[in-house]
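My current task is to audit a protein record that another person submitted. Alongside the sequence sits a line of tokens, each denoting a local backbone shape. Please read both lines and tell me whether the tokens look consistent with the sequence. Do not assume that whoever made the record got everything right. Thanks in advance; the entry in question is below.
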Amino acid sequence: MPHKGIFSRALLSAAVVGTLAVGAAPAVGAAEAPTQAAAEASNLYTNQTVAPGHSVTLVPNTPLDFTDIADVSQSGIPEGWHVTINEDNGAVVVSPAPNAKKGDAVTLKIKIVDIDGRVTWHQPTVTASEDGTADSALPPADPDGPKVTYQDAMVEPGNSVTVAP
């Protein structure tokens, strides 16, 4: 059984013999542009809602192959919203602006590239679930919360030590 990327001589000959279309070259990146049909056919990510000032993580419904690379376009992200992606596993973290209003939304443009260079686009939407205020944000850490102190310990290379509170 041949491996991916290795073609038989007959297949290579068949690929070389053919019609060469002459005309205007496609625009750079045109082959990568998401299409409506591709976006609708894809359900790798589930739409989410999140409170302003908080964050939500969109995890692919099907784990990415370890050779896939994920990226998210920053184009069209509203001011104050933050979007990051883990290129290895495709997890996307979205934080709406603290002052986002209920219903404010962003449709992400997530690109997955497989080992063969095939590009698929996914367009989940994240929507603010309630009205935010300029003060909306994660609550600050409790200054009176539990405090844990540890004793200093020395360890020699190649050995281990257990440090307990």
In short: The chain is about 10% helix and 20% strand. The helical segments are 9-16, 36-41.
